[in-house]
Design a protein that fits this description.
Elements (H helix, E strand, L loop, with lengths): L1 E6 L4 H14 L2 E4 L11 H12 L5 E6 L3 H7 L7 E3 L3 H11 L3 E5 L5 H13 L6 H13 L2
Parallel strand pairs: 1-2, 1-3, 3-5, 4-5
The chain binds D-ribose.
Length: about 150
Amino acid sequence: MKIILASDHGGVNLRKEVADVLYQLGVDYEDIGCDCEDSVDYPDYAFPAAERVANGEFDKAILICGTGIGMSISANKVKGIRAALVHDLFTAKATREHNNSNVLCMGERVIGPGLAREIARTWVTTEFEAGRHKTRVSKIAEYENK
Ligand code: RB5
């Protein structure tokens, strides 16, 4: 599994925590920044990361900003992306099982590093259940392709 990881200035610290989780899980990941504490614009990170998932270069992305909202709104504009804004363990698991989400978004100003690490671990290691959920996810793709 290949994962692309990105944040704006509001998510730098949580991004480093997530990178450590991915390293510990042995996941092949690429961290595209941002590298600085200066203010940057989250779409400049969300769009390239989401596009690299949509084009098959990566299986998934994890995107972090202050709230996770800007990243999720942006990523969901990219065709083929199912970005989930997650701040608890129940939805981390459910969105993989039910929605086959391929982007995880979290907010550094919303949750602490311990919970964020567990969410990342859960999301990365939970499989899509398919079955009845496959029909629903397919309907999203059909709508996108209309
Ligand atoms: C940056 O200040 C902040 O707006 C951004 O990180 C994010 O929370 C947007 O949704």
